[in-house]
Amino acid sequence: MRRVASSLLFVLPMPDLKIDRNAKTLRELTLDKLRGAIVQGYFRPGDRLVERTLCDELGVSRTVVREVLRHLETEGLVEIAAGHGPIVARLDPALIGEMYELRGLLEANAARACAELATPQLVKRLRKIRKMIEDAFEKEDLSRVLEYTEHFYDAMFEGAGKQVSLTVVKSLNARINRLRAMTIAMPGRGAESNREMNALLDAIERHDGEAASAASAAHIRRASELALDALAEQERQQQEPASRRA
């Protein structure tokens, strides 16, 4: 009997060790929240990010907050100011111009390749994403506009076979979305952006690489103009005397 009991120990079912890849960790959830707060302007450029205050607002430990702040520093959303600690990264017009220049080159190249290689299935997928973006604009749900715009570009780069370019763009996504959040909130920008992006998608569907590249470049140029104008206006308001702002 002892031998039987001993042998039964080896036939117990194995535990399910498979990782649930859809479940986000507390750190990832905190990162999403704080990133979103910066991107959408809840925290403004130059604002101090005090660990104790963030712990209270987010309901997490100081260890999690520190890890998230370090990650956001690598994304370019947080910088360390001497004597002040972490602050929301300030927006430099020269760096913004350079970032849009890089975006323009990579996205126009991807748009051309995507048009040349696009399958009916890819066009259908892009059309579906575009419909979601238009619906989000109509409902003034700017967080969804940002989310689905990322999905659109992911699909376009993947359809173009430009994986290295996509990796570079994704490394800039946090800063791009911060600027995109500024521009898409401007009056009339939703309709204008939809026209620009639909022109790009029409060219992809026609397999017109030249037109797709031109449409992409035009869209980026306009976005760059709006972002720099918005930044100049913010700086003007900050420098304006308080008595005049009242």
UniProtKB/TrEMBL annotation:
Entry keyword set: DNA-binding, Transcription, Transcription regulation
Taxonomic superkingdom: Bacteria
Start and end residues of each HTH gntR-type domain: 24-91
InterPro entries noted in UniProt: GntR_C (IPR011711), TF_FadR/GntR_C (IPR008920), Tscrpt_reg_HTH_GntR (IPR000524), WH-like_DNA-bd_sf (IPR036388), WH_DNA-bd_sf (IPR036390)
Name of one Pfam family that matches: GntR
GO molecular function: DNA binding; DNA-binding transcription factor activity
Protein name (record): GntR family transcriptional regulator
Species of provenance: Trinickia symbiotica
